[in-house]
Structures are given as C-alpha cells and as structure tokens.
User: What shape does this take?
Amino acid sequence: MKKRDSFLFSLPLTAALLITAFGIFLYWQIAGFEKSYLSDAQNNIAREARLAAAVIFPMLQNNDVAQIRQFCDSVKEHTLRLTLIDDTGKVVADTREDSGIFDNHKDRSEVKKALAGEASGTVRYSSSLNQKMIYHAMPLDCNGKRYVLRSAIPTAEVGRVIDMSRLNMFWALLFGAEIVLFLTFYIVKKVRKPLINLQQSVKEIADGNLDRKIDIPEDSIIRELTIDIARMTEQLKHQLSQVIFERNEREVLFNTMSEGVLLFKSDGFLIRANNAAAELLKFDKDRSFQLNRCHIPELVGEAQKTIKSEESFEKEFFFDRDGQTISLWIKGSILYKSGEKRLLLTVTDLTNLRKLESFRADFIANVSHEIKTPLTCISGAAEALEENGNPENRAKLTAMLKKHTERLNNLVKDILNLARLEKSPRKESTAEKIVLSSVMDNVIDIESDRARECGFELKLADNLPLTVSGDADLLEQALINLVENALRYSNGKNIILSVTQEDANAVLTVKDDGIGIAPEHHDRLFERFYRVDKSRSRELGGTGLGLAIVKHIALIHNGKAEIISSPGEGAEFRILLPL
Assistant: This one.
C-alpha cells in the first residue's frame, strides 16, 4: 500500500481505535460503577440493619412477635426489606409477605453465615421475589436463642442505570461506527479517488502527454489543488509550445544557413552540425562523425592546436573531391559548457567564388584577346594609309578597316547582350504568350536569303503551334544565332528547323548535316569564347559568344540548351522550353 493510502486510511482506523478504546473504557467505568454501587448499597443496608436490630431486639427479648411483625409492616413502604429468621431457618417476620408462606431459609448462603455467627452480605437472585437482590444478614442472639436479621434491597434501580448506560454506550459506539464509515467513504470518494485521478493525469503529463485533460471534482477537498495544477498544465503547455516553436525556428534557421556550423567535443567527436556542414564535408549528420574523417589533414592539425592553445584560427583550405578542387574558408574557436571544452567550426564554401574569380579573369583575358586582334589590324591599316596613299592599297586597307571595325562592333554588341541577359530575371507564367510556330516562321523569313548566299538550303520540318510564356524577340535571336552558327561552321548543305513536343516541353531544333562536333567539346560548347577550332572561328568572324547567348536565353525562359552531335554526322542544337 502506498504511503498516501496508508495515511488516508489511518485516519478512520485511528477514529475506530479511539471509539473502541472509549467503549472499553466506558464499559470498565460501568462495571466499576456497578461494583461501587453494590458496595455502597451493602454498607447502607448493613447500617440500616443495625438500626432495625436495635428496635427489634427489645421486642424479641419480650418475645413479642406480633409487635416485630407490626414493625416490619411499618417499613413496607420503603425499598428496604427486613426478614427475621429463627435458628431453624423459619421466617418469623417479613416486610413483604406473610411469614408463614416462605420456604425455609436455612440453606441461604447469607443465613448460613449469620447462623454461624458471622454477619455477611451477598448479591443473588431471589426465587421468591423473582428478581436480583442485595442481602445483608447479621446474627441476633436473644434469650439463649440465635436469630438472623436479614435486610435486603432490590438491584432493579442500579440495573436500570447500568442498562441505560450500556444502551447509551451501544448507541455511542454505533454512532462512532457510522462516523468511521462516513469518514472512510468520504476519504475514498472525495479524497483518494480524486487524488488517484490527479496522480494518473500528472503522470501522463510528466510523460509528455500535455493534451491529457485533468478532471476537476465539483466538491472535493482537493478541488483548488486540481484547478491550480490544471492551470499550471495549460501554462506549461503554452510555454512548451512557445519553446518548441522557437526551437524549430532556430533549427530551420540553423539548417538553412549557407554556412556550415559544426560543434565538436575536445576528443574530436561531433556534437551537432547543420545541413550545410554535412553537405560541404560529405558526411551523414545522423551518424557518428569524427573530425579526423573530414579528409582535410591541415584542418585536423589546426583544430588540435586550437583545442590546446584556445586561440582561434581563420584559414582557407583546398582539397580535391571527385576530381574538383574545393575551397573552404573555415573559422575555429573554443566554447565552454559546464566546464567542458568544445570546438566550434564555421565553414564557408568559396569554391564558386573562386570559380567566378577565375572565370572573370579568363573572361577579361578572352575579351582583351578578342579585342586586341581587330584593334591591331585597324591600327596597322591606319598606319599603312598614312604611309602609302596608293589608291589600290587604300581600297584594300579600307576594306580591312571596315571588316575589323564590324567585327569589333559585333563583339561589343554581343558582350552587352550577354550582360543584359545575365541580369534579366527568368520569365514567369505572367509573361507574354508566344506561339512558337510564328517565331519559327519569322526566323525562316529572316535567314532564307543569307542561307542561299552561303550555299545552304533552309528547311522547316515539324512546326507545331505550341505556346510558351516568354519573349518572342529573344527566342528569335537564339534561333538566328544557331542558324548563323551552322552557316558559318558546319560545312554542310542543309539546315532543318522544327518545333516539336517532348513530354511537357516544347523543343526548338536547328539541325545541320555538316562536319559535326566531337563529344569532348559538348560540355563546354556553351561557355563564353569557347571555340572548337579557334583559328578558323576568328577567320570566319565569330565572336565566341553566340552559343553562350543561346544558353542564357533558354535559362531566362526556364528551359535549357543542349547539343546532339558526333564527328561527320552533323550537329543538332535543341532549346527545350516548358509549355
């Protein structure tokens, strides 16, 4: 039994024990009262017997039996009963009845003792009176003969008092038992049961079930306590919800950071990391991870130094992964929690930044190189014109100036177009609706004459009236760039254009039957200034930016550009646009 139940049930048990003890004490008191009452009564009747003997003795000396009987009759109205018995046991006189009708009293215990010369008293049942009596018998010697004067009073009065006391004691014990039963019922119904319900509710709440409803009793002694606990639970639930919300908010912020964050123990085992860190260092965040498994030996050394010296570090680390050079800027510092040393690392991926820096340097170098060639030609032609004014040479030099000036102008124009495209946002669904068959018809009209001049036949295969969202002028420019690219470099005779559908995409295709492009060039073909044959490309006047412009126009329309080609089998350029 639990301490709670032991305490609760000890209350009615204590009450029951107290009532039982009170009953025993009262019974003992009643027994003592009866004994004391009988003793006092015996003393009283002994005293009254002596007084009566003083009156009867002279009469007995005179052998005046009639006067003795008259005296006995005179005390008939009192509760005291007097009986004069001779030495043979015969009743000489009695206050209640005619002495002649009584049985011989010689065998009575008190009479025996009195005849033997000893005054004695006793309490016994009187068969002649049919009730319990208190007797006192004393010897009375007169005229050489021994008489016994016996006095008696009934015990009915004290019996009534004692019976009443016992009845009152019974009712008191019964009332006490009812109190104990009521107290037990009250404890079980109003205290123990609500406490058990409250305990079960609190246990479920402590186990994490904050939605557990607490039953509030209507008239229990613990009603106020239950209300306070229910209110406390609601406040706890609200505060816990707030804490969980803030924790989840921090967790989302932590895991959506572009920088990696890692916290290690002093022995190098990971405590916590965000998604960015797991992605950068290529480990499973849900499994055990140790710093020396990060595949960056220099970082392990720096971390060990920091743990020993507690001095922070900031450093860029380079390492190869999957054939690619990765650049990470890592900061390390020491934190303490409960006296335990911990290492905090923040990791920033500089790989793309370094690529951009390299790309920018390459772009500047390529632009400088592309501009340098026409500028050198223009400068040389201008000097030649100054030195030699021959009309024949002047015409050649003027043509050279015009050619390279146009080339320089095209280069600047393509650079500006590419810059504008890179800054343009991607087209949303709210952009202009374009029917691609109309775009393709316009491209055919624009490039037909130029194709015939170059010895090509421009053909239109499929031309489905598919609709996309975007900019019709940009899509025309992309297709014109692809057509001119085929006219300039393919060495073929036919160019086939088409508008088809693949799944949820519209496909714009420009296909030639020329020399084709080797697969090793496919991945870089849409880069700025990338050329399969650099010398031939410059001779034909290309800027090296046409395909890069095509790629960015496709990206603006949420699509992509791709090539399908093999050496000697022509080239098929495709622009895929979502319908």
About this structure: Residues 97 and 506 are 144 Å apart (CA to CA).
